[in-house]
Amino acid sequence: MLALGSLLDGCNFFGGDMGNHSISHANPLAAKASPLPGKAKSVIFLHMAGAPSQLEMFDYKPALQKMDGMDCPDSFIQGKKFAFIRGVPKLLGPQAEFKQYGESGIWLSNHMPYFPSVVDDVAILKAVSTDQFNHAPAQLLMHCGTARLGRPSMGSWVTYGLGTENSNLPGFVVLTSGGRNPDAGKSVWGSGFLPSVYQGVQCRSEGDPVLFLKDPNGIDRDMRKASIEAINKVNEISYQEFQDPEILSRISQYEMAFNMQIAVPDVMNISDEPEYIHRMYGTKPGKESFANNILLARKLVEKGVRFVQLFDWGWDSHGTDPGTALDLGFIQKCRENDQAVTALLTDLKQRGLLDETLVVWGGEFGRTPMQENRDGKQNVFKGRDHHSDAFCMWIAGGGIRKGFTYGETDEIGYNAVDGKVSVFDVQATILKQLGFEHTAFTYPFQGRNFRLTDVFGKVIDPIIA
Amino acid sequence: MFLEKLLIQSSHNMKTFIAHLHPLLVHLPIGILLVYILLEFLRRNEKYKLIEPINKLLFFIGIASAILSIITGLLNAELSTYPEQDIFWHKWTAIGTTLLFIVYYLLRNNIADRRLFVFSFYALLLVSISATGHLGGVLTHGENYLSFEVDDQPEIKPLQIQNIQEAMVYEDLVQYIFDKNCISCHGAQKQKGELRLDEFQYVLTGGKSGKIIQSGELNKSEIIRRILLDDSDEKHMPPKGKLALRDFEIQLLKWWIQSGAANQQKVREKSADSITINAIKQFHQTFSQNPKPVAIERPPMKPLDPSIIKELQSIGFTITPLSINENYYRVVAYNVKDSITKALGRVQKIAPHIIELKLSFTKADDATLQLIPEFVNIEKLWLDHTEIGTAKLNSMTSLKNLKYLNLYKTNIQQSELESVNFSKKLQIIYPAPKDTLLIASDTTLLPRPTQ
């Protein structure tokens, strides 16, 4: 077992005399060393909830264009289950134009006019697979390593393993946009069986970033400080008596909340950013938007936040209405996403932050090469069903190879034919870049050691620089 | 008709099934007959005389399983694609061994007294049974399977080409594709269809069905025809179970053949259309070695006194080893409350331990900067978003290991920076005169979506 906390305590890392264990030195969020030297110090995980269509963004399939409107060959649908497709669907050609860009000659669709300027900084995984085709379980699998509830999310694992370098801010921040939380709910940033201090702190990009953080009327900061100190003293006494780690969580959360009163409003305020930054990201202060969240992610990482997780909603392009049509709403989503994401990579690069920040982009699965025929009837708009066999994600920064694609799908983008990776492989690779060997990074719970990648996962070596 | 077809089909299936039992069955005679020899040897001792009936039984079971193995083996030989000469020896040693055992069994009581003769017979039996087994193993696992060299698969080395324009079309591109995809069957070890693709001269010679390459003529080049056949076609190359050639590999082969299938030509000497240029790019990118940066070797360092770590933490520093087994540290100063210069003065005591120092967003100023040259081993230094401005950065040229210096949003003028003689390897982050603005490419391709 690699219980990091106990390892460090064992060599008396925090300097506390074990007999007289001073609680302030056992702050569960204190920065910790990684088991191996890590290239990345923080992670920005951009999750496009709903699952964007890889066939209109990264995976160029000219053969699919030629087969547009033809019945899907039996071999692809026999024995398969889809979320909505019934009977024999028709194939749907790419609803975008593709070109090769950059030194690396990577194919990109015209829905992303800005992205070509950073394409030589990313590694695109073209054949990621998952085994879930419904949103909630697939999102859980992506973030918690299982399709069922109850396991810690990736951000929780990482803050548990590395702590945070800025005690005035949470180590793990979650930002959502698009008007809805992800289908899997807040479990995708939950701490599972890890101490709850490691769960993601959801910040709002509109109004007070964290609710109930302000001092109540009539209470000034000194009085707040005195009361928190008193509460913490009582908590320390009960920790001495019961040794329950949740008490430590509570103490550090009180302390953090107190520090956050100053630091959070400051970091979460994007109106101080210069005009050119707003133009670059496409941000509008005071509104809740994906672009605003992207800018916040940069600001948070710049201030030492360990893990920033963004969820954007509205990528579920079934083609049941204009908003989910590949030739309408989807393009709008791409445009919003494209400028902000490209700005993020550009900005991180010019600030010298990209080397230490791992940026991950993807959905929970991909979309079918077939036009969706909900209940056997062709959908009114152009749309695709959920597809778990092959989809695209990209990773940039944090020691990842630049301008590289890995993996290949068949002619119509249905199955992986080369370089197939699983969601667990992506998780293992993220952990590796942070300095963890994913098989050794475990936490004992209910009699056995658990890990993020469960019993799976293989580091995707070819995309590591 | 139908029934007949079905019978033929099912009898064929049955045959295949029985034939495939061979690798399973062969272990029985080997094991049983080896034990039989051992017990025969023991039986010479007075003490073990009683095992005679068991030995008889063992012999019959052993021989029966040997015969079954031979039958399934012959069926297998009929169906298999192994080279005939490889099977030949395995087949005849198997039959020979079985006959030898029968001869021994018949003679065993007559020759029991002639020690030397009997012992030689045992040895002969042992050798012949081992040889049979080994030859069978070679067939299924390949020649190099049983060897002290661990790396038995000829691994394809990553491309070592720096400049693809200077690469040789045949030697570096085409031969690489052959090496990767073909020579396990068409190489120095094996020549299926009497074809070798491991050297230029053999490639030109072709195989059993003639030449495989007609220079300049794709349609007449058997190799291209085979590659482009439908996957399900028996003659498709590479065969079932092997990875198919990728589009860009096929494109490169076509390009090479179409332009004359020459031996000594460089990429830049040949004309290429845009598809080929992309294929070359993709080839280079896919197979080039992923250049892994060399791990940094630092001299061993004594562990730090925990009390000093505690002291620095108490004034707001985050101090962590680069990894749990290292005595080199990363120090971050987001939470330092007092004067950063004063605080950094206390870090100075352990200066040689510090590899990464992050003073971003602190009140660091020129006085703070004066302390920096003490950190002799420092590799990464963040001074971004600080007040430093007029200080002379000259003193920092003494930091031999400095690789990364972040001066984003400071008061230092770029002109000052240019006068400092920094090492070429040093990566300096400095805001461009005007921070990058994004420029969309190809916005014209598609009209804006209707709102």
Give an account of the 3D structure.
The complex is a heterodimer of chains A (465) and B (451). Chain A folds into 2 domains: 4-15 and 24-209 and 268-463, 3-Layer(aba) Sandwich (Alkaline Phosphatase, subunit A), CATH 3.40.720; 214-262. Helix content of chain A is 29%, strand content 17%. Chain A is built from 11 helices and 17 strands. Chain A has helices at 4-10, 62-66, 74-77, 135-144, 154-162, 221-242, 245-267, 275-281, 290-302, 329-350, 423-433, and strands at 42-49, 98-101, 106-109, 122-129, 172-177, 201-202, 307-313, 357-362, 366-371, 384-387, 391-396, 404-406, 408-409, 416-418, 421-422, 442-445, 448-451. In chain A, strands 1, 4, 5, 6, 7, 8, 11, 12 and 15 form a 9-stranded mixed beta sheet that branches. The model of chain A is unreliable at 1-25 (pLDDT under 50). Chain B contains 15 helices and 6 strands. In chain B, helix 3 (27-43) packs antiparallel against helix 4. With 451 residues, chain B is mainly α. Chain B has helices at residues 2-19, 22-25, 27-43, 52-79, 84-111, 115-141, 169-181, 200-205, 222-228, 247-258, 274-287, 306-314, 340-347, 366-369, 414-418; strands spanning 318-321, 329-332, 354-358, 380-382, 404-406, 427-429. The longest helix of chain B is centred in the N-terminal third of the chain and has 28 residues, at 52-79. Chains A and B meet through helix 1, strand 2, helix 8 and helix 10 of A and helix 11, helix 12 and strand 1 of B.
Name of the CATH first level of the largest domain in chain A: Alpha Beta
The N- and C-terminal alpha carbons of chain B lie at a distance of: 67 Å
Helical coverage of chain A, percent range: 25-40%
Shape of chain B: elongated
Identify the CATH homologous superfamily of the largest domain in chain A. Alkaline Phosphatase, subunit A
- Unreliable spans of chain B are 443-451
Low-pLDDT windows of residues of chain A: 1-25
Q: What number is the mean pLDDT of chain A?
A: 89
Beta fraction of chain B: under 5%
Biggest sheet of chain B, strands in spatial order? 1-2-3-4-5-6
As for the number of domains of chain A, it is 2
Q: What radius of gyration of chain A results from the CA coordinates?
A: 23 Å
CATH architecture of the largest domain in chain A: 3-Layer(aba) Sandwich
Biggest chain-to-chain interface with counts: A-B, 67 and 55 residues
SSE pattern of chain B, N- to C-terminal: HHHHHHHHHHHHEEHEHEEHE
Helix content of chain B: 40-55%
Ends distance of chain A? 29 Å
The number of helices of chain A is 11
